[in-house]
Every structure is written in C-alpha cells, then in structure tokens.
Amino acid sequence: MSISITKRAVERIEEIRQNQQLTEDAPLRVSVVSGGCSGLTYNIEFDKDQVQQSGDKEFEDSGIKLIVDMKSFLYLAGTKLDYTDGLEGQGFHFYNPNASRTCSCGESFSL
Fold first, then answer.
1. Could you give the strand order of the β-sheet that contains 64-68, starting from the edge strand earlier in sequence?
2. Domains of the chain and any CATH numbers
3. What residues in the chain have per-residue pLDDT under 70?
4. pLDDT in tens, 36-54
C-alpha cells in the first residue's frame, strides 16, 4: 500500500513548486507528528535537501515523489492526499483509512 494523490492535489503541489522556484524533482515529505486535538497531526513539506533517512519509504504518484519515514508510514498506508478550495476550507486534506477518529477541522486524528 502507498499514498495516492488526487489530480487537484497534484495541480496545487506543482503550483507551489513553481511559486517557490523548486525543481520538478523536489520530493514531498509527508509525516505524522504528535499534536492536534485528536493526538496525531499530519505534516507536509518539500524536502528541499532531498536527504533520505534510513528507513524512509519512497513512492511516486502522478509524477509527484513522496518520502515518508517508516513510523509515519504505519499510520499513512492507504491514505489519499487531496486539495480543496471550497467553502468548507482551503488546503490539503488527508483521507486516511487507518484513522478511527478525526477532529472536526480534519487536521488531527487518532487510531
């Protein structure tokens, strides 16, 4: 299982890359950290240094390279990354089949 990215998320990622003047091969690092009202929260950022750590898993979907540390991958396997800009909020959203509970804003989760 890997992490998939919707077309809308790909478009926004490419737009951000262009605005930040990053190369097309700059990977996206996705991780899970402690925090938020449900206990765990998502973190997403470009890995500008492209330094892969021991145990990192690497995926590619729709031309976007993702790097996930092994601990985070255990929480994120099968997750879909989407981007919305509608009335319900603008930003990246994670649809995580492993989450048993999410907070109302969708930024944190628990297992």
1. 57-61, 64-68, 28-34, 40-46, 108-110, 101-102
2. 4-110 (2.60.300.12)
3. 1, 36-38, 50-51, 88, 101-111
4. 666 788 899 998 776 677 8
Query: Tokens 């991958």 appear where?
Result: 73
- What's the CA dihedral at 62, 64, 65, 70 to 10 degrees? -80
Length of the chain equals 111
- Partnered with residue 14 across adjacent β-strands are none
CA separation for the pair 44, 31 (Å, rounded): 7
The bridge status of strand 80-86 relative to strand 89-95 is: antiparallel
pTM over 0.85: no
Interior angle at CA 82, CA 29 and CA 37, nearest 5: 75
- With residues binned 3-state (H G I as helix, E B as strand, rest as coil), the percentages for the chain, rounded to 5, are 20, 40, 40
